[in-house]
Design brief:
The structure is a homodimer of 434-residue chains.
Chain A lengths: L2 E10 L7 E9 L2 E7 L4 H6 L2 E4 L3 E5 L1 E3 L18 H13 L4 H17 L2 E8 L2 H11 L2 E8 L5 H18 L7 E3 L2 E2 L7 H14 L3 E5 L3 H11 L3 H7 L7 E5 L5 H10 L2 E4 L1 H6 L7 H6 L4 E3 L12 H16 L7 H7 L2 H6 L17 E5 L11 H8 L5 E6 L2 E5 L2 E2 L4 H16 L1
Parallel strand pairs in A: 1-4, 1-5, 6-7, 7-8, 8-9, 8-10, 11-12, 12-13, 13-14
Antiparallel strand pairs in A: 1-2, 2-3, 5-15, 15-16, 16-17, 17-18
Helix pairs in contact in A: 3-4, 3-16, 5-6, 12-13, 12-15, 13-15
Cofactor (chains A, B): Zn(2+)
Function (chains A, B): Catalyzes the deamination of 5-methylthioadenosine and S-adenosyl-L-homocysteine into 5-methylthioinosine and S-inosyl-L-homocysteine, respectively. Is also able to deaminate adenosine.
EC number (chains A, B): 3.5.4.28, 3.5.4.31
């Protein structure tokens, strides 16, 4: 099996047992085979077919983006500075209704290129035409948790067809692409799916043994509507419908009461915090310090490029560290190391990949990135975690590996044809705009 | 005089009369000599000694960073996640007390390199050893408003010596470096300068005909202390001391009442909004939409790299557009175009350079930057202002010119020796840390 070696690198491991290691890391096949401080042992050097000189590079686990809609990169910059419902109903949904499988393929390819170029190695994607997204994951070499998000505001036979589509996708793709693809089941949101439909989706998730993913409590208006329609707030509503009886990841969770936070913690529900999208759509500021204090696993998502408008997870990491300090008045809220965990370890945990990705440790998957620090904004060499969180950007990522395979080398994409993708994405957009 | 030409470019002019021009721009000496849509006239081509192919580039005015302390880049990552007073008194000031002129020179050089690499062409700097900062401005080719910030918590003779130093600096450097350097006068803050000392600084500013710059109302604690010490809030306090009798730029202005906003508008005081620094130090969120609505000129500053921790003004522009939507609940607050004006036109206006920089227009200074859009996060080609604000980063800047002279070419610094700067900055830091 292919064995290769990083020498002379600074490893930001995210492993509390050895957070920073100046030394070597060996990869065999898809896994980290060994690592240590100082010079690599002679045996490691002998076994390695290739060597990466780690001088001037920080190595860290690939970032995990736990909420998005990759294909919507086609809609970047189409409609900004609007409220959530107006933006969704009058701008996004009419365009998305016209999306073909090819549009989804090229939009997702565009997103995949951008994610690799900014250090994301695993992403969660909720959309339609998911077989085309899975093809992008397969081709790009990324790792992903994919789910056909279903909106149930339609006749029963259409609801059933959508659910069957989601089930079929999961059967076809779960565990595929050398195990890099996982499937999830997804009611789009409590306000877009009637209760009985959510129950059917939950039942299917039980049958398939899959986790659930949904949007929840993104805007205050949506929470008020839930109370009006169902007499309870979204957390209790979804809990009653069984959504938390399976491993579940909810996106946004901006508007929560203390009781809801306690219930999420009790049920082990993970939250994908999307600070840029929440600010841009004026949804509000999630209670992240309170969620973390309650023991909820909080990870980070970009949401789509239509409400962000990029997929650079370093920005979410930085904003998670900054925003909650400023809003709470507590300068120790979400310290740098915690923000970086949100983008790595907690991301992995929130989609069932704890112990597999999100950390540099022998036995774990070789999903890692190298950040070039030969730049003014990494000087002086003081606290690398601080620099990664407060000073770095995705553009500092030099190399990316997933499953031991290199996807980016000196910022050159090795698995994707970026010229073709830019051309096709632009063409899709122009056809959609009509 | 040297005349050169950009052909085939997309010009984001910031001029409301012609916001986006697909065409050409000619520079002669330090000024924009002409511009227009479509192909450049034959005469322009004939006159140009050099031509820049603008394909795949967005040209816009260089960014204006209206508050910072360049030399503090030496302290990047030294102390994070702390409250303002603790951070200042126990971490920053003890280190800064040891700064020599050489430290200021290399720290400011590091900042200059970072600013050029991220598209800033004009910056405001308040610090000590300002002659060394001026030397950096001279050598780097940047434009700057420089001011020796004085802290008056010291015996009268030291106060006088500091004020004389500030006056001498202004006499020596105002208008120097081919007019790229302007001087200002600066009491550091109302809480670090006794009232009579502020009055003496204001008197000196009148004598020299210079604008004033100060920190104001950054934290709630500081406002409460002002009320306790002087019976009024900082705006009224400074107004009584005459600070607003000259053109004035105040940094932060986070904690303001409606009355204070009205008074700032009435006095024509400009505000430098520093959103990243304000969040990181948990100072709070400035009332930017209210300030803009009242007619106050609000520009953007990074503050120092010690409380940011980078000098990428694109981040401030983006955060200005995002933060106030999320916090106010109004998704139309600070739209993209307004945020970009804050980083360009309003920046220029806030330091008396209106009509000279901050806009691409014949007759104005040739301070401009080129952003490379041949990247996934600029696809599809929809709204360039949206992409610049919501998707771009400083790392997308390919070329930079100030006063018609190129400072950055394909991300290569033409006026600064970055290897030497990194080495010297690291050495300064290690000596300071002791």
């Amino acid at each position: 099996m292919n064995r290769w070696l990083i020498e002379n690198g600074t490893l930001v491991t995210m492993d509390p047992a050895a957070p920073i290691v100046h030394g070597w890391l060996a990869v065999e096949g898809s896994a980290i085979a060994g690592m240590g401080a100082g010079e690599a042992p002679e045996e490691e050097k002998r076994k390695a077919r290739e060597t990466v000189n780690g001088k001037g590079l920080l190595f860290l686990p690939g970032l995990v983006n736990t909420h998005g809609h990759a294909a919507m990169s086609l809609l970047r910059g189409l409609a900004d500075d609007l409220a959530l419902q107006d933006w969704l109903e009058n701008h996004m949904w009419p365009m998305e209704a016209k999306f073909t499988g090819d549009d989804v393929y090229w939009g997702s390819s565009l997103a995949a290129a951008e994610m690799i170029l900014s250090g994301t190695t695993t992403f969660v994607d909720m959309y339609d035409h998911m077989d085309r997204v899975a093809q992008v994951v397969e081709a790009s070499g990324l790792r992903a948790s994919l789910t056909r998000g279903v909106i149930g505001l339609c006749p029963p036979d259409v609801q059933t067809a959508k659910l069957n589509d989601a089930i079929q996708f999961a059967r076809d793709w779960h565990g595929k692409a050398d195990g890099r693809i996982q499937a999830m089941m997804s009611p789009h949101a409590p306000y877009t799916c009637p209760p009985d439909y959510i129950e059917r989706i939950v039942a299917a998730a039980h049958e398939l043994g899959l986790p659930l993913h949904t949007h929840m409590s993104e805007s205050a208006a949506e929470v008020a509507q839930n109370v009006k329609d169902y007499g309870v707030r979204p957390v209790e509503h979804l809990d009653r419908l069984g959504l938390f009886s399976r491993p579940a990841l909810v996106a946004h969770a901006v508007h929560l009461t203390d009781e809801e936070i306690a219930l999420l913690a009790e049920r082990g529900v993970a939250v994908s915090h999307n600070p840029v999208s929440n600010l841009k759509l004026a949804s509000g500021v999630a209670r992240v310090p309170d969620l973390l204090r309650a023991g909820v696993t909080v990870s980070l998502g970009t949401d789509s490029a239509a409400s962000n408008n990029n997929l650079d997870l370093f920005e979410e990491i930085r904003l998670a560290a900054l925003l909650h300090k400023g809003v709470s008045g507590d300068p120790t809220a979400v310290p740098a190391a915690e923000a970086l965990r949100m983008g790595t370890v907690y991301g992995a945990k929130s989609i069932g990949l704890e112990g597999q990705v999100g950390m540099l440790k022998p036995g774990m998957k070789a999903d890692l990135i190298a950040v070039s620090i030969a730049k003014p904004h990494f000087v002086p060499a003081t606290d690398y975690v601080s620099h990664l969180v407060y000073a770095a950007s995705g553009a500092d990522v030099a190399h990316v590996w997933v499953d031991g395979k290199q996807l980016l080398r000196d910022r050159e994409l090795l698995t994707l044809d970026i010229e073709r993708i830019r051309f096709e994405a632009q063409r899709s957009f122009e056809r959609l705009r009509g």
